[in-house]
Amino acid sequence: MHPTSLPGRFGIGSLGDGARKFIDWLSASGQKIWQILPLGPTDFSHSPYQCYSAFAGNADLIDLDELVNIGLLGELPLPPKAFPLESVDYHSVRKFREPILHRAFIRFREIGGFGWGDYLRFWDQNSWWLESWSLFYACRKNLKGKDWSFWEESLVKHKRETLHLYYRTYREDVEYQRFLQFLFFTQWFSLKKYANNLNIMIFGDIPLYVSYDSADVWANQDIFFLDSARKPVMVGGVPPDYFSETGQLWGNPLFDWEKLKNRQYDWWIARLHFNLRMYDLVRIDHFRGLESYWAIPYGAKTAIKGEWWKAHGNLVLKILQNQIGHLPIIAEDLGTITKEIHHLRKSFHLPGMKVLQFAFASDSENEHLPHNYETDFVAYTGTHDNDTTANWLKTLSPVEKNHLRRYFDTSDIDHWKLIRAVISSVAEMSIIPLQDILGLDASARMNTPGTILGNWKWRLDNLEDLTEGGQKLKELTVLYGR
Asked: Does 241 score more than 80 pLDDT?
């Protein structure tokens, strides 16, 4: 469950009291892991996998009540209209939050917050990415209507004099963004400490690619395949698969692995270290792209026509392993996986993924059937890209229905039988989407791959709705020794 899905007064989940109560529920239910989606600042699609920065945090998650508690705000105003309880209306949420956050920023500056020891330590630890991110944010806000490649040439090329000019011109917005990042990470690490003290690990997520319109590409143009106009030459995606007959066209710029090699893979190593500090475990999304990746010509309408290019993920992981030893990384190895990718995953002892919803469309050799699991996997009923299990059961093909009935030796199958199958498996970890614990229908689906609108909105109405599910979850957890 992503933090945006938590209940709360102001239309979206936050890193505050609601998140702590959810962690309390996890602990009371005997759980040890909370898996979330990426936490970066999202674009117009609100997808956590399309962010303006691979390092910055999403200011939508900053808890407003905490700003009252630390004296940066007085009493919070009521929203002009009631927010929906079971979905996030991002436009209304941001319209309400923005003036409140800016008021807190003004107060922070008035009381000398930028000179506080906590802020100075934050800047010292994060300036290597925060400096470019805060200026990117300020320029993007003020140079409206165009991505960074349309900015003036000297700004695109990071000429020192021009950077200083824009820092001075947009100083208010630069400082505001640094303030927001200070708040986000202060609240995040406080929440993580709360979870860890209750023996709950936070399981984060690293998208393989970054958005073209991001501080990362603007600040590191040399490590991406860009043409003379600084547009992508090829973009990322996957060929036709389970989710789409035309493949998935993500549109992200591709890494130039030879250029990364010349830099000793510094950007990737820094990114992994950063995420391993933020989380206790991390999943690398689209792990196969670290071995080879589908390169689609820029401007193509679908992902059908592309070619496989080789990546240097083995060298990146080897450097990281030499630095820290054991890698607390999970490989998202779903889809068409070659022997080379299996070898890469196993050579670094990384668990892969199994998804029960993929198990029943073929025969007994299907790798997603529980009897075929090995211990070095994380087993799921479904992921954020799948339908809810309750609705999936209603939409099965005749072949899947028959296989499911024979596999469980009954036609009386509900979402809890599938949860039990995952928890009782030999997989090293089992992860259950919160929607499946609640038995929710398709309206609670988090994402439909290949679509842009209507995703990432689901919210839990009330934490009290979890009481019964928590009891069942604890019973299964104890029963199967998890």
From this structure: no
